[in-house]
């Protein structure tokens, strides 16, 4: 005998799921009215061509596409600037900055003296090249000072703000000791609109990948506290005179990183007590010897 007291349940219609990959490498998975995004790794043909022409490994064209970090909805540029100023005051009051600025001053002074002695030397035999005052600072991998990463799961804002404070402090010190028009560049795909506005207010020029690679020369300071090893392997053959980041020691015995370390002096920062992992084991490196012209 059939059970007539139970009403039959209507089957929900099966919703067709559609995947659409946009120009940024995101695959949008649509199911009815809901849409979610999944990051996919795919070649970037245009970037690969540019990198190939500039001598940069095409392996970078296979990297996952990163998108700008998501800032809190109510955060304004004024709020972000206030946060940055607070972080900068803590940084500049720390032993880490006190020690770093002293070492940096010594190296900048040494460079100026060597450049002056080279220009004063006469005779038909050319003098070996020597370090010159920094004419550009290139920042790689700073992260977002305002936004969350990885769909909101990672909050690295304080680390980025402290590292940006260090960059700004170094920029001001270097600018006081060089007669050239110091340019400061920053490259990171996670920068959002607020980040770019904050950097612009600090006279830091935001550039897109892989433009930073073309700005690295022997007279560059490379500021790379968050750079990946594969990027450093492409940057360090240019022998930037100063580098802040690392540690590079024992990273690849006999490789590019170790080769740079072998020809450089370095100073390890004291522990930054306000946020230890913001500068954990980081160093200031400077190229000690430059090969002369035979």
Automatic annotation (TrEMBL):
Pfam family, one: SRR1
Biased composition (Low complexity): 115-124
Region (Disordered): 1-72, 109-135
Biased composition (Polar residues): 54-64
Domain of life, source organism: Eukaryota
Bias type Basic residues, positions: 1-15
Ranges where the SRR1-like domain occurs: 129-286
PANTHER family: SRR1 DOMAIN-CONTAINING PROTEIN, SRR1-LIKE DOMAIN-CONTAINING PROTEIN
Protein name as it appears in the record: SRR1-like domain-containing protein
Natural source organism: Penicillium polonicum
